[in-house]
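Reopening: structure tokens for the phosphoenolpyruvate complex, inputs below.
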Amino acid sequence: MPERSESDSRKLLRRLRDTLAIPGKGQDRLDRITHLIADSMGTEVCSIYLFRDAETLELCATEGLKPESVHKTRMKLGEGLVGRVARTTTPVNTANAPAEKGFRYMPETGEEIFSSFLGVPIQRVGEKLGVLVVQSKIAREYSEDEVYALEVVAMVLAEMTELGAFTSDEDGMRALHRQPVMLRGSTGQEGAAEGHVWLHEPRVVVTNPVADDPLTEIDRIREAVGQLRVSVDDLLSAESLDKDQKQVLEAYRMFANSRGWLKRMEDDIARGLSAEAAVEKEQSATRARLEQVPDAYLRERLHDLDDLSNRLLRILTGQGQDTGAQMPENPILVARNIGPAELLEYGRKLKGVVLEEGSVGSHAAIVARALAIPLVIHADRITSEALNGDHILVDGDQGIAHLRPEETVARAFRDKIAMQAEAQKRYASLRNLPATAKCGTTISLAMNAGLMADLPSLEGSGAEGVGLFRTELQFLVRNKMPQRAELAALYARVMDAAKGRRVAFRTLDIGSDKVLPYMKPNDEPNPAMGWRAIRVGLDKPGVLRMQVQALIRAANGRPLTVMFPFITEFGEFQAARSHVYRELHREKSLGHVVPSKVEIGAMMETPSLAYAPQAFFKETDFISIGGNDLKQFFFAADRENERVRKRYDTLNHSFLSFMEGIVRRCQEAGTTLSFCGEDAGRPIEALALAAIGLRSLSMRPASVGPVKALIRRVDLGEAQAVIAASRAAGDETARPALIDWLASQPE
Ligand code: PEP
Ligand code: MG
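Re-run output (same inputs, fresh job):
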């Protein structure tokens, strides 16, 4: 194989493009290409392997191997040398292929006579498409220059594959973005939805990967990088940047000014790629590295470079965020990640959301929950697989997205949605009935909310009021601290919409995972146990007071319910309460109308508060258990860590006994106790909580129906006896016993 010069490489790319321009079937094109590459590179073999599905590669065309093996020879990702190239997205270059670790001989191809092997990935910005291989009889390693030349060719093939150049026939070859794909992620928010993909950031389409004139392309890339540098500098000069944003932009600037990056792209162009294809080639290399870097900091930086490449591509192609595409009917938002404000902007238009990254505790997840939109997170590859308008099913319960599903899958899914709708109808018929168990005990069911958009659910769900209004969402979705008047107007609208029903406003719970974009971030080693919630409120009381003033003004003579998050000891409650007293006094002296009645409560979210002095229980107007936090601290299991968050059962007897102790202390003090963590909305958990003495539960609106239906079916005294018997029998958790018992209860 001769050494390849730059002009050889350009010639090959041009011949490749001309070949691809000839109309014909996809298979004919592939055959012509393998012939062309082998001929031009002076190798005996050139083969193209493409993915049949996410795990299987198929030999789709070859020059030099036995023709009958085409579409027969297949290998799994990671299998043999071809599979290794695909898995690692890095080239394999060897003079003695059979001696190479992992080599797998495919007898039907007749490849045993070829000693040297060079395989490079065919990929497009992180999407693995296949492998391009050349082989020769003579035992030699290919030069760096040859590897590079083949990578450039693979880049053009990737673009052409993306444009569907090889899928015009019906020979069973993988039609990119046309086959059904099931992506398994995790649950961000339960629920099911069917609709069409709406990409938050549409893919940039590169229509001509081959440069007509390298000099023009070099000018274009330099000019685009120049524009990029200016835009990053502009962003950096903005005033309202916090430390983190600055750090990210500094990294952007470093990359944008990096000579190495531009030089590599210029080299790619000299080899015959267009400016856009050169950016993508480097971006693919970045993504490949990203997959292999375990270091979190380095991964973040590589992400930055990836973002920067996207910006550069948009500058070059003129394809901005707004591509003019129409949002499809029943849009399902697909994104790598999304901020809470952006998600709120889409609002209830969306039927579902699928994210490649994200986390259960992220702000976006909180908003999705508030909007009751099914959300799947960690759906690997979704942004590279999905195209705008693709048919998609989102199964939030299982954490799965079905992209371009088979009709049978879609039908089964629709049955599931119909069943859920049927159940909702049944629940709707209970809307105006109380959650009274067979024993005659009534449980008060309220709903959790955080947005104005939640309030209409109050009518529909049958909830008696809002047991938890998370006020932080209003703070999280803004770029600057909201003003008192703004908040007062919002709280007033919430109270108006509640039409006299009780709304428990929780004061700002920030810190931990909820960091305000305009507040100086604190680098805390363990933010969930750090400076958060009421701790911030007491140390910097300005915001707390402003919020209380807004609430008093919003109430405008109506009753007001306020509670403080994350109270850990009695003194904190007293101090927080004194701020409310102070503001009431102040507002009155300023001539404002004060609420007709003020209830001041504490959220019990740390075990220590369960052992507070009796005076605490006597003095609080009510206590609300924040079960999400209380459970994480009781079991020492991070609620945001997928590995451990479901490890311990809420119905574990240790936890239930602990909760019984809290119920007892509240009963002794005559204080109202409620529970507002996610578990309140899970029917069996809700039943257990009611059985051990909780009389008030607050949950997602959609859960009110199912919880009410279950409570109305049972005798709580019997349920309590089942729990007691299970404990006496030495069970770890009461769940199996409760499930068995429930199965014997009439519908
Ligand atoms: C809780 O911790 O259970 C709770 C209701 O508050 P949040 O989920 O907002 O922390
Ligand atoms: Mg909490």
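The longest helix spans residues 214-236. The chain has four domains: 6-171, 181-199+325-407, 214-317, 435-743. Marking as resolved unless the reporter disagrees.
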